[in-house]
Amino acid sequence: MSFIYIISKLFTYLVLPPGIFIIVFFIIAFYTKKFKKLFLFIAFSFYLLSNSYVADALLSRLETPYNKKIDYSKKALAVVVLSGGSIVGSANIPISNDGYKRAMWGVMLAKSQNIPLLFSGGGLYKNYTQADAFKESMKELEKNLGVAMPMSSHTVMGRFALNIENRSLSTYENAKFSKDYFDKLGIKKPMIYLVTSAYHMRRSATLYKYFGFSVIPVATDFKIDRKPKTFWDFLPNISAFNKSYIALHEYAGLLSLKLRGI
Questions:
Q1: What does pTM read for this prediction?
Q2: Is 162 helix (H, G, I), strand (E, B) or coil?
Q3: What are the distances in angstroms from CA 215 to CA 58, 95, 175, 189, 252?
């Protein structure tokens, strides 16, 4: 490992955010007389949340239960894919990174089992919903790879086709409007393959079960990298900070379900 490589890596971890913020808060804590403990607390909190060990530990309880192969002995009527955001104005593939993994895994599963897929997601932008981003991305897939992606306005069980729910603004509404969708088909307690990011599965499955679904969780978009840790993983980095944010957001969502009695 060359000296120049080590210096460039240290620069990346310590001079770019969040490393620079941690250093600044430590310096302020060292020189200030007032609020010293507060600044030290902020600095340590930033460091811990930006540390790969801590980030993976926070995510582990969310992801690990769903990091397993699909049990194909359980037959579902349909695949339900939860949206993961969109990138408005993107020149191509306008689904977000998380959303694209969900969509692709859901499509592969639905096509292999020859069952319908319901994509659930609206978003705040009414002129261009997350469902619109999904449809556009699937059209690109069909055009460039020659893979048939039939869109359906009338669901037929036992046949692969893409169906859209474009009103939901939250995971709660994903489940609620998905239930409305199956109710209109006369299916009261559907068994589904539920596809979402692994970190999001626990909350999603809880809500879908609450609305009367029998859920077979088939998670994707795993965030924990299980390769051996190195010295660099002790240093703060923005990827770990983002993973910590995702985990804390999910724990807050799970707490809100508990408080609502779900």
A1: 0.91
A2: strand
A3: 24, 25, 11, 10, 22
